[in-house]
Amino acid sequence: xxxxxxxxxxxxxxxxxxxxxxxxxxxxxxxxxxxxxxxxxxxxxxxxxxxxxxxxxxxxxxxxxxxxxxxxxxxxxxxxxxxxxxxxxxxxxxxxxxxxxxxxxxxxxxxxxxxxxxxxxxxxxxxxxxxxxxxxxxxxxxxxxxxxxxxxxxxxxxxxxxxxxxxxxxxxxxxxxxxxxxxxxxxxxxxxxxxxxxxxxxxxxxxxxxxxxxxxxxxxxxxxxxxxxxxxxxxxxxxxxxxxxxxxxxxxxxxxxxxxxxxxxxxxxxxxxxxxxxxxxxxxxxxxxxxxxxxxxxx
Amino acid sequence: xxxxxxxxxxxxxxxxxxxxxxxxxxxxxxxxxxxxxxxxxxxxxxxxxxxxxxxxxxxxxxxxxxxxxxxxxxxxxxxxxxxxxxxxxxxxxxxxxxxxxxxxxxxxxxxxxxxxxxxxxxxxxxxxxxxxxxxxxxxxxxxxxxxxxxxxxxxxxxxxxxxxxxxxxxxxxxxxxxxxxxxxxxxxxxxxxxxxxxxxxxxxxxxxxxxxxxxxxxxxxxxxxxxxxxxxxxxxxxxxxxxxxxxxxxxxxxxxxxxxxxxxxxxxxxxxxxxxxxxxxxxxxxxxxxxxxxxxxxxxxxxxxxxxxxxxxxxxxxxxxxxxxxxxxxxxxxxxxxxxxxxxxxxxxxxxxxxxxxxxxxxxxxxxxxxxxxxxxxxxxxxxxxxxxxxxxxxxxxxxxxxxxxxxxxxxxxxxxxxxxxxxxxxxxxxxxxxxxxxxxxxxxxxxxxxxxxxxxxxxxxxxxxxxxxxxxxxxxxxxxxxxxxxxxxxxxxxxxxxxxxxxxxxxxxxxxxxxxxxxxxxx
Lengths: 299, 524
Known about the structure:
The complex is a heterodimer.
Chain A: H1 16-36, E1 40-41, H2 43-46, E2 48-55, H3 61-68, E3 77-81, E4 88-93, H4 97-115, E5 120-128, H5 130-158, H6 161-185, E6 188-189, H7 191-221, H8 228-260, H9 263-298
Helix pairs in contact in A: 1-6, 5-6, 5-7, 6-7, 6-9, 7-8, 7-9, 8-9
Chain B: H1 3-22, E1 44-45, H2 47-50, E2 52-59, H3 61-82, E3 87-94, E4 97-102, H4 108-118, E5 122-130, E6 133-140, H5 142-167, E7 173-177, E8 181-187, H6 192-200, E9 205-210, H7 216-220, E10 228-232, E11 239-249, E12 253-261, E13 266-273, H8 275-287, E14 293-297, E15 300-303, E16 315-318, H9 324-336, E17 343-351, H10 353-407, E18 410-411, H11 413-442, H12 447-479, H13 482-516
Parallel strand pairs in B: 1-18
Antiparallel strand pairs in B: 2-8, 2-17, 3-4, 4-6, 5-6, 7-8, 9-11, 9-14, 10-11, 12-13, 13-16, 14-15
């Protein structure tokens, strides 16, 4: 069985202008969203208190709000998570440190006295102090940076500098769009989400490298002068069924994680899913055309 | 035996060892049955999967330096009296500065000599004269201050360990982080308030005489007699006037136990002193019969009973309307020793057992669903070769679980996510090889040549692709914390395991098929 009929050659390079335009648009939208809407940083990075609570009876967001309003916590945000029938909520307040511990206790007390001791299940409490959240934020973003540097060096060593730069540009493209999607959907950026971004980096590179490896091999095989764009096209075409198959099997499992993995890991799965789709697209339509640009400027 | 068979045996050995190590974890919370000859170590579950508390404490080391200066101050006072140096006050001005105010500036030379002789780590920072008094500031040397800080953190770590051990947490993890932080993982503990109370009490026990000659009312109005101060009772917050000097402290404590007072069924804590402590306690009580002796913990007065007679035998009791839990925690704290400095709680994460259970269930559910889809896809697309890849996939998961158990790594929820992701990506190596084999077959190569060329040609791409993911995973491990590190660990192990299953195991099976079974057509 074959997804792509053997010998098929698709003229990917013909679409490079359209692809660049599409990517430019996506990047502009993402960056605009980052400026306008910003990112919804979770408690890991803002500091504060986050409580995940489930009720064994039907409770509405407003009821939760009116239960904890009397405590007078400034800026408490209540969000329903999971399915409606789960009656599960996230309560976040900026209160942190020792007062955060107290805030968590007060909220628990207020919920139990309003809805009854037995109906309230405090599933998770996170209290993160300012010192720690600053640390986590710095480390989180530094890790993205260091991973980028490490990969740049590795590909440079294995291939050539132009391949390395093309791969890193494609990867930056993937990360910007994935982060942009978090800004647009307002999904929360937590530590596991940063981990997901790093995975996206690793994965997106995977695809790109497989194609670059084939390009390198085809250049070696070529006897005499060759047409660079059509060599790129055939390299992408030859690896296309692998690209599609691996992307789909990975997508299957991430989709399973997204649908059935539960609230805690939902954003993590979302990040990988978006990154996977964007990464597959960019390894075909962005990374290789950038190589072509480099080869032209060299001449 | 030829090298091919030997290779097969080695592969089999790896798989058997992996299975043996992975097997205990499949019993979940149940005991491994009697008679199981393999290893019994199960995979450690992270706090996010089994429930528990993660705490980051900061030891306020400034306070340790300051309290050293305070004790220097009190020693210095008596030395200055002996040396006839006329001072009006000695105190720690800031965490690292000791301030001495001299009533007679001419005593400065004598003070300087005293300091150099007795406290060589104090350096004069500056001095000033005003209104007939001289103020001299001494700065503690950087070396001495940093030694005190290091010792404070070490001692705090020790005390925290003692307290947690006595509290009875199974498999706690208590590790220092950075200069002044302590990270605690307490699996199975779900009451953060109690855990925090247990850790935050510095537990400095002091015995002080009640100042009964003067009235606490006057003192509250601002007329505090010298040598005394106003403290507050733990219950009810009534003020009580105490002598500043502690007649005894908790250093000489030997043991602390919960006792139940029979008439009211009220728990209290009985403490016993060391031999030396018992003698001091006897002397103090015999000298002060008829007076009230206050028992303070962390500055709060727990009780202030009247001393009826000299107390021999080195025992005392602490009462304070405790609940059973409070009394037992107090006894633990007293036994475990005091903290050299207060601690702040920087981070606190509690996961209840219900969420942990749900997360395990949901994690495995998505693993199975995702896994089944991939398995089915591979069989449909690559037929018999797909089946081989599926076998490799199962071997891969078993090896990951076995490796986690052997390494004592912790499986977290993102870690489970990492395994799920590995399932999707593990077949990538197979796909790359199979696509190459197909290409070779199309060129009219024999099955044997196609298999050989397929594995050979796909190798560089497979290595490069996996090494880049590994680089990302290693960076993640370096910078991540807790659950995220768990993800980095499973992802890395998954990469290595999938390289083994795809490039060694599958290759062996296919070479065996074409070389030994003389299969001429590959089902792919």
